[in-house]
Amino acid sequence: QVQLVESGGGLVQPGESLRLSCAASGIIFRIDTMGWYRQAPGKQRELVASITSGNVTDYADSVKGRFTISRDNAKKMVYVQMNSLEPEDTAVYYCNAVIRSTILVPSRAYWGQGTQVTVSS
Q: What residues are paired with 79 via a beta bridge?
């Protein structure tokens, strides 16, 4: 069974930084694209940033220049460095990864449980 576990959320003031981490564990044959999504109260879940197995990255327009996504394939981890945080970044942040557990099954998407990020003065 595959699990994704996020860490690093918290309460920060506007302009400060946070780094979120996500660790994948379990029976894993291959990890393809990994990413971070967020969901603010009353809003739909949206993509924040993604990174392919070849380290091609993509960002939501609202975070470009402020957030940086990276991954460590050996550790099966994905990170997002969030700088210059704004109150509008307040949300629950979810880790997502497309994972193939064994060579016998197709890849599927997995989600973490989410970690709260609150930006407030």
A: 21, 70
Q: What is the 3-state secondary structure (H, E, C) of the chain?
A: CCEEEEECCEEECCCCCEEEEEEEECCCCEEEEEEEEEECCCCCCEEEEEECCCCCEEECCCCCCCEEEEEECCCCEEEEEECCCCHHHCEEEEEEEEEECCCCCCCEEEECCCEEEEECC
Q: Are 18 and 82 in contact (CB under 8 A)?
A: yes
Question: Average pLDDT in the 31-49 region?
Answer: 97
pLDDT of amino acid 74: 96
Mean pLDDT in residue range 69-95: 98
